[in-house]
C-alpha cells in the first residue's frame, strides 16, 4: 500500500483501478462504502490482490506506467519479482522474433508484437525517441527488456501464445524450441467444458480473445457454427489442441479479464468454480509444492540477523532500505512493538548474482518456491510417487554471517552449520559438533515460520527428512529480527539471540554518545504515550547491549557473533555539535 499511496489518479476513467483490471461497479462500490480516502485505497488494493490471478509488483509497475507514474514505477521496479528462466533475455529473444512483421504497435489492422505483450504505448514511444538507442536493434532490445523486467506473465510460454495469436508461424517455431513440455493430465477438453459449462455462451468471442485465439479462427468459428454453445465448445477445442502452451492459468486469467471487460459477475463465478475444481495461480502454488516436494529435499541456507538500537534510531527504516522498500515518511513513524509482538521476523530471500535482499510475504514465498519446482517438474515429466519430504534448514554460523548480512555480497557456505528438520511437531535445531544441550542455542523452525505468518497448513506439508531423497533445490534466505528499541527489550535481549549470525547495532549519528535519548511510542506518526528520558545514555545502552550479547555468546562454542555498526540520520549531523563521527569511532573502539 505504501508503494502507491501518492498516486494521483486512482478512480478516473483511465486510473490505477482501471489498469489493475478492477470492474467499474466494484470501484464505485468501494467509494460508496468507505468515506475515508485512505481506506478506499486500501480496500481497492486489497480487492486487487485477492482476486487478480496475476497480482504482483510487476502488474503494479505496468499499471503505474500506463497512468504515466513513471517515477513511482521505477522505485518499485528495483525489487519486482525476477524471472526464474535464465535462458530468457532480450538477446536470446530478439533473434527468435526477428521475422515478426509488426514489432511495435498496430499498423492499420495488423497488431504489433509489443502491443499484444502489453507494453504501454508511452513506453514504446519513449524508447523509439530516446537517443540512448540509436539503432533499430537497440530499440527493440530495450522494448523486450521492458517486457521481461515488468510484465507479470513474461515467459517463453507467454510469447508463444502471443505469436500464435498474431499468426507469426515462423517466429512461433523458433520460440517452440525454448518451451518446456507441459504435463497436466487434468487439462482436457472434457474437463474444460465441465469447468466452463456455466460460462455465458454469448461471450464466447471475448473469451476466445482472452485465450489469444487468432482472429482468423474466431471468424471461422462464427461462420461454421450457428449456436453460441457450439462456438464456445469449439473455442475450448482449438485452445486445447492448437495453443502452443495451454494452461489452466491462461484460462483463469482470460476469465478474470473478461469479467472486468464486460463488468459481468458471471465470469467471476465461473472463475471461482474453475479454481475450486482445478487449482490455478496462488492455489496451484500450494498444489505444486505439495506434489513436487515428494521428489526430495529442499535445502535452505539461513542467516539470522538481529537489529539492535534505541527507540527512533532508525532500525526499521534501515531494514526497509536494505530490502529495497520505500521507507515510511517521517510523519508516518511506527514504533516496533515490544509487548504485543516482541520481534518482527521478515523472510528475505537472497537472489540473483548480486545477492540482493528481497522481502517476500508468505504468499509470495509459496509462489517463489512453486515456480522453481514447476520448472523442474516440466523438465522431468510426471511427478514420481515418493515419501513426503522436508525442508532441511542450515543456519549460518556467525563466521559466515558477516558477508551474508551485506546485500552487496553473496552469502558464503557456512563453516559450522546447524540442521533443522522442519516438522509439524517443531523439531528443535541442534548444532553440529560437540555443543552440549545446556549451551547450544535452541530454535524451532515452526516458531520462525509462524512469526512470518506462513499458514499452518503449508507447514504441515513438511515431514521428517529421509537422507536417501535427492535435493530438489537449494535456496538462501535471511531471517531479520527487527527489535523494539525500548529499554525493556535490552533487558530481555538474550531471549531473542538464539541462532543469531550477525547483530546490526544502529546508532543515531545526530545525537552525542553521552546523550540520554527520549523514548516514545508512535502509531501512524502520532505519539501514543508521553515521551520520557532514558535513564541511560546512548553509549551506556550500546555497552549494555554488547555485554548482554557477550554473556550469551561466550557460552556457545564456535565463532563469535559478528557485530556490524550502522550509523543513521547522516542528514542531521549538524545537530550534533559536541562530537563528530570520528569522535564516536574513537570512543567506540
TrEMBL record:
List all membrane-crossing ranges: none
Matching PROSITE patterns: DEATH_DOMAIN
Bias-annotated ranges (Low complexity): 398-444
Where do the record's region annotations for Disordered lie? Answer: 312-335, 379-444
Report domain Death positions: 14-80, 189-255
Q: Which biological process annotations from GO are given for this protein?
A: signal transduction
Q: Indicate what this protein is called per its UniProt record.
A: Death domain-containing protein
**Originating species:** Geodia barretti
Provide the taxonomic classification.
Eukaryota, Metazoa, Porifera, Demospongiae, Heteroscleromorpha
Amino acid at each position: 500500500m505504501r508503494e502507491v499511496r501518492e498516486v494521483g489518479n486512482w478512480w478516473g476513467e483511465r486510473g490505477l483501478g482501471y489498469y489493475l483490471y478492477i470492474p467499474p461497479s466494484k470501484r464505485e462500490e468501494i467509494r460508496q462504502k468507505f468515506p475515508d480516502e485512505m481506506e478506499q485505497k486500501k480496500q481497492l488494493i486489497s480487492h486487487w490482490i485477492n482476486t487478480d490471478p496475476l497480482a504482483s509488483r510487476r502488474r503494479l509497475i505496468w499499471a503505474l506506467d500506463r497512468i504515466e507514474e513513471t517515477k513511482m514505477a521505477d522505485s518499485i521496479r528495483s525489487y519486482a519479482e525476477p524471472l526464474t528462466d535464465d535462458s530468457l533475455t532480450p538477446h536470446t529473444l530478439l533473434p527468435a522474433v526477428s521475422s515478426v512483421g509488426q514489432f511495435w504497435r498496430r499498423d492499420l489492422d495488423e497488431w504489433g508484437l509489443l502491443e499484444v505483450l502489453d507494453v504501454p504505448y508511452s513506453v514504446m514511444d519513449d524508447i523509439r525517441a530516446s537517443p540512448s538507442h540509436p539503432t533499430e536493434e537497440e530499440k527493440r532490445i530495450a522494448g523486450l527488456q521492458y517486457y521481461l523486467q515488468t510484465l507479470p506473465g513474461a515467459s517463453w510460454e507467454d510469447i508463444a501464445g502471443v505469436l500464435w495469436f498474431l499468426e507469426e508461424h515462423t517466429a512461433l517455431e523458433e520460440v517452440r524450441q525454448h518451451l518446456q513440455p507441459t504435463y497436466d493430465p487434468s487439462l482436457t477438453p472434457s474437463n474444460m467444458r465441465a469447468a466452463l459449462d456455466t460460462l455465458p455462451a454469448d461471450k464466447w468471442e471475448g473469451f476466445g480473445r482472452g485465450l489469444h485465439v487468432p482472429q482468423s479462427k474466431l471468424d471461422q468459428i462464427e461462420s461454421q457454427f450457428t449456436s453460441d454453445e457450439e462456438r464456445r465448445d469449439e473455442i475450448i477445442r482449438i485452445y486445447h489442441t492448437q495453443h502452443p502452451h495451454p494452461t489452466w492459468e491462461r484460462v483463469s486469467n482470460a476469465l478474470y479479464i473478461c469479467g472486468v471487460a464486460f463488468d459481468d459477475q458471471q465470469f467471476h463465478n465461473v472463475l471461482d468454480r474453475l479454481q475450486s475444481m482445478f487449482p490455478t495461480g496462488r492455489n496451484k502454488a500450494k498444489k505444486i509444492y505439495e506434489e513436487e516436494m515428494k521428489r526430495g529435499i529442499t535445502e535452505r541456507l539461513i542467516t539470522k540477523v538481529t537489529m539492535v538500537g534505541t527507540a527512533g534510531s532508525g532500525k526499521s527504516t534501515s531494514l526497509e532500505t536494505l530490502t529495497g522498500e520505500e521507507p515510511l515518511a517521517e510523519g508516518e513513524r511506527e514504533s516496533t512493538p515490544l509487548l504485543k509482538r516482541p520481534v518482527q521476523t521478515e523472510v528475505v530471500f537472497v537472489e540473483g548474482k548480486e545477492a540482493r535482499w528481497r522481502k517476500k510475504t508468505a504468499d509470495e514465498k509459496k509462489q517463489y518456491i512453486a515456480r522453481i519446482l514447476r520448472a523442474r517438474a516440466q523438465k522431468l515429466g510426471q511427478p514420481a510417487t515418493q515419501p513426503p519430504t522436508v525442508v532441511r534448514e542450515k543456519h549460518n554460523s556467525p563466521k559466515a554471517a558477516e558477508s551474508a548480512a551485506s546485500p552487496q555480497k553473496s552469502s558464503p557456505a557456512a563453516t559450522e552449520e546447524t540442521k533443522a528438520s522442519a516438522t509439524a511437531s517443531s523439531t528443535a535445531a541442534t548444532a553440529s559438533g560437540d555443543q552440549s544441550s545446556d549451551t547450544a542455542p535452541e530454535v524451532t523452525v515452526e516458531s520462525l515460520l509462524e512469526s512470518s505468518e506462513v499458514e499452518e497448513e503449508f507447514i504441515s506439508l513438511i515431514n521428517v527428512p529421509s537422507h536417501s531423497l535427492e535435493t530438489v533445490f537449494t535456496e538462501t534466505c535471511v531471517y531479520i529480527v527487527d527489535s523494539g528499541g525500548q529499554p525493556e527489550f535490552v533487558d530481555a535481549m538474550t531471549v531473542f539471540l538464539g541462532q543469531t549470525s550477525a547483530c546490526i547495532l544502529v546508532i543515531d549519528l545526530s545525537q552525542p554518545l553521552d546523550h540520554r535519548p527520549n523514548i516514545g511510542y508512535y502509531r501512524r506518526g502520532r505519539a501514543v504515550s508521553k515521551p520520557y528520558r532514558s535513564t541511560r545514555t546512548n553509549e551506556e545502552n550500546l555497552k549494555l547491549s554488547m555485554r548482554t550479547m557477550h554473556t550469551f555468546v561466550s557460552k556457545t562454542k564456535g565463532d563469535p557473533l559478528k557485530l556490524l555498526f550502522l550509523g543513521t540520520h547522516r542528514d542531521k549531523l549538524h545537530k550534533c555539535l559536541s562530537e563528530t563521527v570520528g569522535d564516536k569511532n574513537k570512543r567506540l573502539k
